Amino acid sequence: MDFDLTDEQRMLKESARKLMEREVVPYLNGFPTGRPMALDDIKGLLKKLIPLGYLGNVIPEEYGGAGLDYMTYGCLMEELDPSIYGLVMLAGSTPRSIYILGDEEQKRKYIPPMLSAEKVGCSCITEPNVGSYTAGIQTRAIPDGDDYVINGAKMWITNGSFADMAFVLASSDPEKGAKGLSRFIVDKDVSPWEARPIPTMGDDGRIPAVGELVFEDCRVPKRNMLGDSGGGLKATLIGFQAARCLVGMGSLIFATRAIEAAVQYAKERTQFGRPIGQFQLIQDKIADMAALTDAARLLIYRGLSLVDKGGRCARETSMAKFFATEAAVKVTSMAIQIHGAYGLSTEYPVERLFRGARMMTIPDGTTEIQKLIVAREILGMQAFV
Fold this sequence. Notes:
The chain is an alpha+beta fold. 49% of the residues lie in helices and 15% in strands. The strands form 3 sheets. The chain has a 4-stranded mixed beta sheet, with helices on one face. It has a 4-stranded antiparallel beta sheet with strand order 2-3-7-6, covered by helices on one side. Strands 9-10 form a two-stranded antiparallel ribbon. Helix 6 runs antiparallel to helix 7, helix 6 runs antiparallel to helix 9 (350-359) and helix 8 (314-339) runs antiparallel to helix 10.
């Protein structure tokens, strides 16, 4: 394996870093924490990211995309400000789903407004009573004339409280169980639904991380079924391979920022006449933090490179997700320990980084689910139905 990034990847990362410093962070700082930004302001933020390919990512240029590979896209994502990672990840993954699963009419109609940030998408899988067991989806999409009528609720949906485009996994044929699940493109302007934000740890209130959506007799044209009838579960599980690496990449941002904060503090904080960075126990923690972060990054890069090659890579991507997210929790926790009591103060960044990292162990499959997937791929034995 070649561990070196290409010149193009290094250049994109540097451009992304400058974009965050010069435009994105100052734009965000113009909005007070604790108060949700208006949808138009969120779209204004996303529009700043378009030139580098954050929204177009792996979608070919013929559809208005950036034509990147997953590895390069992952490198870009690593440079995001942590407060907008979930927003950007979902804003980029929803048009990608249309490109992968949609027919030509759907691609031409729905991809352009999402790549231009005129529409913001969310992916609706999890429900109040259905988490990792995706096959147990209870939301129904019943055919009625030229439409499907969707009834059900979706929970913990990233971008869910403000998105105006939703990709809904629902049962279109309940008698077939998991083989009756299908995905639907739901445009809120045509097929409205109700939504509310769910306050969560690590959320500063400007861009609500997750929300609940309620679909009540929501009529969706039959032509808005995404992919084949009954193919929703398979498509969702395949999509998880890239998503899990990208969630892991998001956790790396928290870990990297925590290391930077801890190193700076260890150099500046003095005890007994010298910087605490000279103490052996502090150096022990810094070494562990760096090793965990580097190992996580390599697992993510391996996973993304396998996604680029195509085929099944559930073992590697699930391993990357659980290792990277748990590593970020450990790294941010050690950063707090290095700061001592100051690490608990909201005047310092590390407590916020810890809360953000802790949240990443849950979405797109918990740590426990990822380990069951890895073990299943190794043993050839299923631990759950």
